[in-house]
Design brief:
2 domains; about 30% helix; alpha+beta; 12 strands; Aminopeptidase; four-stranded antiparallel β-sheet; eight-stranded mixed β-sheet; about 230 residues
Amino acid sequence: MMILDSIDDIDFIEPLRLNMTDVFYHEDDGLIMLERESQSIMISMTDIDKFKRLWSQCHLDQYQLYNVKQKEVVDLLINEYHKKDYFACYQAVYMATQPIEFTIPDHVSIRVLTQDYLDDVYHIYHHMSDRDYIKDRIEKKALWGLFHDGQLAGFIGMHREGSMGILEIKKEYQRRGYGSLLESYLMNELLKQKKVPYCQVVVGNEASLALQRKLNMTLSTTYSYWVFDE
């Protein structure tokens, strides 16, 4: 079976470990599986011709979201299978098991968000325009807000496939360390659940990469690619 790297392939390893996937193919030359909650197809294939056969055999065209390890496969999905677009990202993984030490100031609180904050999150978050996705994250208690003197200053969440994300700090509250505070809080929550904290950083987002380094996250040496229809 294909050997997975603990950093570069954490986005495959954790869903597998937590029994979140249905495996369609796993041999020395590749791994194809469905992450059930996000309904995303996760692909790592070194044999492109075999992948073309598996594409048909496994009816992979019915899905709209793909997490891919090889750029050659990405190009195939875009150019031959007419998927709409893609972006590349790094993995950032917290490899330690001890909690992160931090202090929440007296005027700050962090708590799970309710649907009362759906519109606020939707209008503040700059990296997604899918209101239903944000609503789902709130329904699943997978979105946390940081409040400054009772006012929502920022938030962070868990994506369906298990990575941390949806991190945003309102402009007037930036440069106060709130991004680091939120991510540290969520990382510790994941550690309590015996999960490996990791996130994916879009290539070019230097501010986020700096934050991950500050939190002692280990960065991948290769890219992962998200390919999508919508």
